[in-house]
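Lecture 7, part B: from sequences to assemblies.

Below are the input chains for today's worked example.
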Amino acid sequence: MIVSRKEVEQAVSSARSKPERTLFLAALLERATGEEAIVVGGSAVEIYTSGRTSTRDIDVVMPRARALEIVKSWGFVPSGRVWRRRDWDVDLDLCGPNLSGSHARIHVIETPYGPARIAAVEDLLAKRLAELKHWPTTPAWRKDLVKQIEILIAEYGDRLDEEYLAFVTRRDDIVDVLADFRRRRHPPDSEGLRRE
Amino acid sequence: MEFSVDPRLVAVFGSETRVRTLAVLASANGPMTAYRVGKVGEVSMPKVYREIYRLSEVGLVGRRGDGWILLDDDVGGLLRRRVRISWSEDWFAGEGGRARRAERVAAGSDGWFDISRYTPNPSVAVRYAKEFQRPPEKGRSRKHR
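Predicted structure of the full complex, as structure tokens:
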């Protein structure tokens, strides 16, 4: 389906927040290309945390060829790996078709422009835990990761697919670090006190 | 493009329409009209009206104002974990509360985490190297407000 530059500009200007703008852009990309567009990475975390964590670029998993034509027609210009609309302060990173996570656990949000898809919260959580534990990070970035993880666990901890989370945390060797984050949210003693 | 429903859930609940209807209500922050449930869940209007009528007959859903809510927390919990489907208006209506809760959590998140307690596993780092290594144009422009 053809989605004109004007329609995209109207959608972007009607968004009341950055996460909403991301969802609208993802929905319009999907509508224009006819191919699934899945928001991943920091922009997905930004949606889940209602903008409490923020990122400049929007990472989208989708086949690149058709999407590139579309974003060019919408006025994005290439800047290294990303496609930029400076006036919107938006960088689009079209990551290709391979989602490194669970397709079945994607969150679909129905927008006025069609469905927008966000990577599973379990995968976002696991990636951040893996980066924290296994990748050399700067203290400032480590602090950011800790915040992101804490917010995700606090907000979504009771609706995570535990079976899947157990699988990814074993696979990525992050069982221990997740357990520590959870223990911090719900110290064993507080459980005991509640029961008493 | 449709969203897919886990066939195991269809087996448990008896029909895909029922799963979609209940899942939309489970994820909602407030009452939803049958029309909206159908639109978000990608269920035809006659089917969604019939399904909601059936579910209300057995007390699984109930009326609140102009809309419907799911009355069973256990069913809701299962569906929230297994089918993730929301309406953007509803999602963003809950944004203020989410942001406030996140603010509280973030405020108390400094200083406790000790990276030296953990032993990095190089094979996991290698697996995700492409994702963790960010080119300069992407930057780490995240900021916390």
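Note for the exam: Residues 25 and 140 of chain A are 30 Å apart (CA to CA). Keep this in mind when comparing with the next example.
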